[in-house]
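Study both lines:
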Amino acid sequence: MNLPNKLTMLRVIMIPFFVFFMLTNVGGAHSQWIALVIFIAASLTDLLDGKIARKYNLITDFGKFMDPLADKMLVISAMICLVSMDRIPAWIVIVIVAREFIISGFRLIAADKGVVIAASYWGKFKTVFQMAMVILMIADIPALSVLTQLVMWIALVLTVISLIDYLRKNWNVIGSNM
């Protein structure tokens, strides 16, 4: 278990704490801000694990599989919390989750054939915008509402573009089984 993989696992461990503070009032008026700090810290582990893995050639199949899964778990957990708080429309979260299920299905089929499908640049851009969207929505600053909406729509468009990109690039993984 190298450092990038430990950072990925740390991100997964942080999720329940984030959700706890998002959905409870344990911290009083500060719960939302505690959740925001946890989310940002977890998001930064995503940036760090990738940089460290590439710089020191610590890229592993575990990391290629678990890093995108940890991102999905973090972002989807946050979006579900935000739906329950009426800060994001449920249909947008459904589109995003559907994309993640489709990509995960592709990855499972590919893994069965001994192929590891790493995250694409479109997928990385999508993740960055989804994380930015979540940060803005958790902060819920009225003066940034237009920016929050813009980032939400960009994240949605990138979600669809990255899905199309994955399907186009990896269709051969399942195409022979049809």
